[in-house]
Amino acid sequence: MTDRQPGASRRQLLGLGAAAAALPFMPHVARAQASGRLVVSTWGGDYARLLGSNIDQPLLAPKNIEVTQDVGTEPARVAKLIAQRRLPRGNVDIICAQAPQSYDLNEAGLLEPLDEGKVPNMKYVLPELRTNYALPHIFSPQIFIYNTERVQQPPTAFADLMADRYKGKVGLLDNSFIYIVMAAALAKTGDASNFAAAKPDLEKLVRDGNKTYTVTDAFAPALRSGEIDVGPVWQARTIFWQKAGVSVQSSFPKEGSIVYVSSMSVPKNAPNKTAAFAYLNAMLEPSAQRGFADSMGYLPTSSQATLEGEVAQRLALPEPKPKLVAPDYAKLAAARDDLNDWWRRLLDGR
Amino acid sequence: MSRPSKRRTTGLTAGLLIGPATFLVMGALVTPLLLLARYSLNRYDRTNFMVEALTPENYLRFFYDPFYTGVLWTTLWIALVTTVLCLVLGFPIAYRLARSQSRWKSVGVLLVILPLFIGSTVRALGWMGVLGRGGLVDSTVAALSPGSSFPLLYTPFAVVVGILSINLPYMVLTLQSVIEGIDARVEEAADSLGADPSRRFWHVVLPLALPGLATGGVLVFILAMNAYATPLLLGGARFQMMAPMLFREYAVNNNWPFAAAIAFILMVTTLTLTAASSAFVQRRYKAA
């Protein structure tokens, strides 16, 4: 008997331990059922902080909606959503993702359809950025960034990047090469989705010894040190790096600018859809939109959110207004695998 | 209580004690690996991401395409070069530390360990500052010979230096403990029998330290094969290694089945080479 006593207690302990270990995997048990709890799957850093200070605290806290951020890289968060796709109830209410990724998620049938009945502020969304599965949160046009100390004659068209004066001095961002392909296609054919036509230009740029960077933040030191002089990036980046003291300026391509859109959507299995719609509505409020323009240099996606003063000046588009081109996400998705493969082999040079 | 029942109780207690750990390893390592193996046989679909299938096509795609096998070769030679450099550079440091009687010995050990307190990404960023254009090396060269430039960033050299700086402490610490286990009197005996220092090293110290060299070598080889942040940040977009390629397939292309196959190929290559080197060293050790 005395031998069995500790055995039984060990078993109980093990049982308790196993139950405790399994708890995180049982969200319905572990999570409080408080109505108004909302999980936003987002990037970290400044973006997450600004969501907190411009949307969560001023607009949702008064409505008793408590926002929890699930911070991570986009691939990891998207992977989580894909992994949860068969669950009737997931644990994400809002997913922040780049527009092409949102398109893919919607194609896979993972996103809740959106309309003005669910999100009243949707009627103010800029028409060219509007979709019925993801709402654009912020956007930024692609420009040519250039070092003002070394470049006297800034590029005004994509073809300028291939001019001899910039040979070896053009920076290309690996993580947004698809947008560079679209810029080249737009310049060459007037159609940003004519990817095949753009390939020779990109091949020339890469083979001419221009520099490619895996991370966006490697671009600024390269511009500063003279490793590169120009490159196609988002306007928001110029503003961000200007604030950091780098002598850079933007020039707009005369053929038009492809736009980068960061969007938000609601997964079909979101546990708190009512709160999620309220969140999207708040995200489109002018005050929330202005907060992002001011701090990160991204343009508002709501026609209601007009900018004033110094921010308006900093983000002003040149006159005459450049053509802003939203990518055709369907064509992009169809060509993406081939483009990725072609680009990797091109960089590899084997 | 009779002897067999006591043994049975002891066996039961031992089973209960190792049970949770075994359960954890099975649940957290073996099951995901089995799942990964299963995924690697699935088919990729752009809309549905992954379609259930039992096909070897992901493996065939890898081995029949010189692009992918080329990346595997690059990864292998970078891992081998860094492992050899770790052995060559780590041994003297480890030997000096192990045989040191100085009161500064603990400071020396601390200096070796200190870099491990900083994450590999942060260290790679530090190297970017040293090797990049306008960095420490480049500006020194420019100061010595005006007009010239010597950027080393985004070259295989930068990747080797980055991985070496991360892996060297592991090698030094492993070797130090092994060398400390070798009786110093054996070396004294060799000295007194007239062996010169090089003979003493090749015929006494090295054979005795061989198992430690193998352990350290295997450790840093595995770390180098799986390096992610260093090749991505110091190698740049044109330099490709297995771990960043795997991540790209999984994250950028959403191609989980192919990413799973790459993961398996990387793992099996690493394990095979590790097992082969261990078997080789073991045989040599027995012969010695």
Automatic annotation (TrEMBL), chain A:
One term of GO molecular function: thiamine pyrophosphate binding
Keywords: Signal
Gene Ontology process terms (BP): polyamine transport; thiamine transport
One Gene Ontology cellular component annotation held by this UniProt entry: outer membrane-bounded periplasmic space
Species of the source: Muricoccus roseus
Full protein name: Putative spermidine/putrescine transport system substrate-binding protein
Keyword Signal carried by entry: yes
Claim: Zinc is one of the keywords in the record: no
Pfam families: SBP_bac_8
From TrEMBL, chain B:
Main location: membrane
All residue ranges annotated as the ABC transmembrane type-1 domain in the record: 72-277
Keywords annotated in UniProt: Cell membrane, Membrane, Transmembrane, Transmembrane helix, Transport
Record-level GO cellular component terms: plasma membrane
Keyword Membrane among record annotations: yes
Compartments where located: Cell membrane
InterPro entries: MetI-like, MetI-like_sf
Keyword Transmembrane helix tagged: yes
Top-level lineage group: Bacteria
Membrane topology: Multi-pass membrane protein
Any GO BP: transmembrane transport
Record-annotated membrane-spanning stretches: 12-37, 71-95, 107-130, 150-173, 208-236, 256-281
Family: Belongs to the binding-protein-dependent transport system permease family. CysTW subfamily.
Protein name listed in UniProt: Putative spermidine/putrescine transport system permease protein
Organism (species): Muricoccus roseus
